Amino acid sequence: MMGNMFGKRRDLRFTILAVLRSGPKNGAEIMDSVEKMTFGMWRPSPGSLYPMLQKMVDENMIKKEPSGAYSLTQESDSWFGMGHMHNPFSGNSPRNYDEAVDEINGLVNFLEDIKANGSTKLKENKEVLDKIADRIRKLTSD
């Protein structure tokens, strides 16, 4: 299994900007575009994508539309001319508690995008998702 080809946040940032150059997309569509762009070799995890999207919104690099799609800003146009392209090939996964929680949060954001796109996958997998939710609830109970 290949894993994440882009190990640094800077690379994910550039990839998001490159994908959004073709037009606004929500998080799930960004992941699909990256996977297509890399011929299936990489699909960013929701736990890395969604926190980066929020960080980029906070930095005014992208904006979140009322529809839930993200789009470029004037600020992001300058990013392409500043030599921010990088081409690493390394994997990453959560290394600590905070990163694991970010990963879970990103996965929930991803599932929300899937639901917003009208997919029935969540209903089809309700039992599995309920079991996962129960396991998480048990982690935080006394």
TrEMBL record:
Gene3D superfamilies: Winged helix-like DNA-binding domain superfamily/Winged helix DNA-binding domain
One Pfam family cited in the UniProt record for this chain: PadR
SUPFAM superfamilies per record: Winged helix' DNA-binding domain
Sequence ranges assigned to domain Transcription regulator PadR N-terminal in this UniProt record: 16-65
PANTHER family for the chain: TRANSCRIPTIONAL REGULATOR YQJI (PTHR43252), TRANSCRIPTIONAL REGULATOR, PADR-LIKE FAMILY (PTHR43252:SF5)
Protein name: ParR family transcriptional regulator
